[in-house]
């Protein structure tokens, strides 16, 4: 019985783990052709199937697998095909097969192939039927932009070679010998002085069989590519051609080959596709957009610019000039990222994913071109500096016009002065100046200054004399002269006076300027004063309300914002301006009194009597000084109960004596039992009086509560009264401190004038 029980237990365990004896499962097929099916085919296969079919044919033939019928539960049951006698996932040919569609034929790279079938505990289907044959090995003919693995039958994207991941089943795409970096020989003249270095790796994406540079230069397409590199269709076309025929190589263990980025190719294509030699260049779709080789953003006169149509522009411009707002991030509309994953759509930077004629971005108002300078499609006039306007030519009419709105400009005073004074018509370096110089000048504009007096002076040498002029010019009558040596200055918020003087061989144009403070008083200083006044509400709010602290903190934060705004429009100087210093002082006072308020709230909630000196000093005298009256009158008065009871007892005893219960006039004491009886009576009477007194007090309190409507049903604690006094004191001190801070701050912040 023991062996039978053991066998039954083992059988139950095997069945519970899904191991069945299934017909047609786990075959080893060694003939050069044959057929196999899933378990129970054409009936439904069982649950928990895990069948392996190992196929081997006569070398050097390869296995050709064809499915003639296929129906497995989609998403749950799978058929896996492996290249070789292995179940290694890296040798998997394609993905797991499921569903009802008959898969494409599969071929191995050698004479072995393994097929695995698995099913779960859910629904089952008819399964599959497959046949295999031994065929001669047919080498794959990979297309341009592909690399053929060493097994000869697998093609992968060329940019996946030497990228750190095994994309070929045999790992040949990451072979150290084929991924090694080589020097670009100097004989390849079109690729001298490349931006990214002098190392290359072969084969290139044009032909996977060109493993040496001689093969590359002797190819049929090389002559056309060389002509394309020498053309002027795009300023970076030479670099693109070289980056394709001799791909960049980095000495990195994970990433060694870097093909050109697709955006670079698309930009050059826009400018160069009209060239006959462009037909020799591959389709831009073969190039990657990650782990790729790209050039730096082009610059012109120190400003970012774009080449061609700007598809490869990777600068930081992110503002729409017409709308005057920042561009909307590309991530807000995922359709662009999904359609143009190669276009480097990062953040809200200006880009050109749809291959328009210049970089653009989206704004709340819609589509708008960015204000970026084109690198090689313009020519500025003589004696002018580059700007960000785009001037284009109409191909039909030949007229030129601004493509975008003309930018705001201002006079370059330095350039204009040099041009006026040092031009050939005015100044001749071969001729010495006259010994007498006449000065005339006027103020053109005030850009940004603080209240100040500024003197611009000219001094001549000993052999020359300098004086003010007595005449203006017919072109401009605003010049100051000896006769008219003063003029008022009014420009925007600035006003003042300018004076021309000449003495001691020195001529000076003195400007006294001041800023009109009305605007800043109304927009900046007034809100600060309002916040200072609003802080008083903190002391008016009930002490037992938690909103008091929150309100005070809000006002304090508003003052911080006001300080940031004020320091933003004030000019930067070595000393702190008066208004900024005043705001800082007021903020410090607010913070101090906020701490005081917190202390008062803590005192308010304290129970018990205050010390006698506190009651006298604060609740009586200080409260009167703060117009709160004598608060000690509000305190609960304690009745001398013992004294009252004692008096009541003495009265009763006197009455008892008067009634004959006390000692007689003659001095005869009453009997002892009489004394005891009288004492007991007195004690009982005393207790009754106490009970009557308590009842009367309780009744009186109830009547008072009903009469006052319940408003004064609780006595005010001594600490609560103390908190009210301190709160009123803080209010007075806050007002006084603010009133004193303004003149003190003005006095401290006044600039010191040295006696010299």
TrEMBL record:
Annotated signal sequence range: 1-21
Domain FZ intervals: 176-308
Membrane spanning residue stretches: 519-542, 549-572, 578-603, 731-749
Membrane topology annotation: Single-pass membrane protein; Single-pass type I membrane protein
Keyword Magnesium: no
Location of the protein in the cell: Cell membrane; Membrane
Protein name: CUB domain-containing protein
Organism of origin: Branchiostoma floridae
């Amino acid at each position: 019985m023991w062996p039978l029980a053991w066998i039954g237990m083992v059988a139950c365990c095997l069945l519970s783990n899904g191991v069945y004896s299934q017909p047609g499962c786990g075959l080893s097929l060694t003939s050069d052709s044959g057929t196999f099916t899933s378990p129970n085919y054409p009936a439904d296969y069982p649950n928990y199937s895990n069948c392996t079919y190992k196929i081997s044919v006569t070398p050097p033939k390869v296995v050709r697998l064809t499915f003639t019928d296929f129906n497995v539960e989609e998403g749950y049951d799978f058929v896996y095909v492996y290249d070789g006698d292995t179940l290694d996932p890296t040798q998997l040919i394609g993905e797991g097969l499921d569903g009802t569609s008959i898969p494409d034929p599969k071929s191995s790279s050698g004479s072995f192939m393994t097929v695995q079938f698995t099913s779960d505990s859910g629904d089952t289907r008819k399964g599959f039927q497959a046949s295999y044959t031994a065929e001669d090995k047919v080498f794959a003919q990979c297309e341009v932009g592909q690399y053929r693995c060493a097994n000869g039958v697998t093609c992968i994207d060329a940019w996946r070679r030497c990228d750190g991941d095994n994309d070929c089943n045999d790992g040949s795409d990451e072979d150290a010998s084929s991924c090694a970096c080589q020097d670009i020989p100097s004989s390849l003249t079109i690729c001298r002085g490349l931006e990214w270095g002098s190392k290359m790796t072969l084969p290139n994406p044009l032909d996977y069989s060109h493993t040496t540079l001689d093969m590359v230069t002797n190819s049929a397409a090389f002559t056309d590519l060389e002509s394309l590199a020498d053309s002027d269709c795009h300023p970076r076309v030479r670099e693109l051609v070289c980056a394709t025929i001799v791909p960049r190589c980095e000495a990195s263990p994970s990433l060694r080959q870097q093909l050109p980025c697709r955006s670079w190719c698309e930009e050059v294509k826009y400018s160069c596709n009209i060239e006959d030699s462009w037909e020799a260049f591959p389709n831009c779709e073969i190039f990657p957009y990650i782990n790729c080789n790209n050039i730096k953003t082009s610059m012109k006169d120190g400003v970012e610019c774009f080449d061609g149509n700007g598809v490869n522009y990777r600068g930081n411009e992110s503002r729409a000039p017409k709308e005057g707002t920042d561009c909307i991030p590309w991530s807000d509309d995922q359709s662009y990222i999904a359609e143009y994953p190669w276009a480097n759509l990062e953040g809200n930077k200006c880009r050109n994913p749809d291959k328009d004629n210049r970089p653009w971005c989206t704004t709340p108002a819609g589509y708008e071109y960015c204000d970026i300078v084109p690198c090689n499609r313009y020519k500025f006039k003589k004696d002018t500096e580059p700007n960000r306007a785009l001037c284009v030519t109409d191909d039909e009419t030949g007229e030129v016009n601004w493509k975008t709105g003309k930018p705001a400009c201002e006079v370059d005073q330095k350039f204009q002065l040099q041009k006026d004074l040092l031009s050939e018509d005015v100044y001749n370096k071969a001729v010495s100046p006259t010994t007498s110089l006449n000065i005339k000048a006027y103020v053109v504009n005030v850009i940004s200054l603080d209240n100040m007096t500024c003197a611009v002076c000219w001094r001549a040498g000993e052999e020359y004399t300098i004086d003010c002029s007595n005449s203006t010019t017919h072109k401009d009558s605003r010049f100051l002269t000896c006769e008219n040596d003063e003029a008022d200055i009014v420009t925007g918020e600035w006003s003042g006076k300018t004076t021309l003087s000449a003495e001691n061989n020195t001529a000076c144009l003195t400007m006294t300027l001041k800023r009109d403070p009305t605007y800043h008083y109304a927009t900046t200083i007034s809100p600060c004063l309002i916040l200072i006044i609003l802080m008083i509400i903190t002391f008016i709010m009930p002490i037992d309300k938690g909103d008091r602290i929150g309100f005070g903190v809000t006002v304090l934060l508003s003052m911080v914002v006001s300080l940031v705004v004020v320091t933003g429009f004030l000019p930067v100087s070595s000393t702190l301006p008066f208004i900024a210093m005043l705001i800082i002082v007021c903020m410090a006072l607010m913070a101090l009194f906020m701490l005081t308020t917190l202390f008062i709230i803590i005192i308010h909630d304290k129970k018990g009597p205050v010390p006698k000196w506190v009651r006298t000093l604060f609740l009586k005298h200080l409260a009167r000084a703060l117009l709160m009256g004598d608060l000690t009158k509000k305190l609960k008065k304690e009745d001398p109960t013992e004294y009252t009871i004692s008096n009541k007892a003495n009265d009763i005893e006197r009455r008892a004596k008067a009634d004959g219960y006390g000692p007689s006039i003659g001095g005869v004491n009453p009997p002892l039992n009489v004394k005891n009886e009288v004492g007991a009576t007195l004690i009982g009477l005393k207790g009754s009086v106490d009970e009557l007194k308590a009842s009367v007090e309780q009744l009186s309190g109830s009547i008072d509560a009903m009469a006052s409507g319940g408003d004064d049903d609780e006595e005010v604690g001594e600490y609560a009264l103390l908190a009210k006094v301190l709160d009123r004191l803080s209010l007075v001190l806050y007002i006084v401190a603010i009133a004193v801070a303004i003149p003190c701050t003005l006095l401290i912040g006044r600039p010191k004038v040295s006696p010299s």
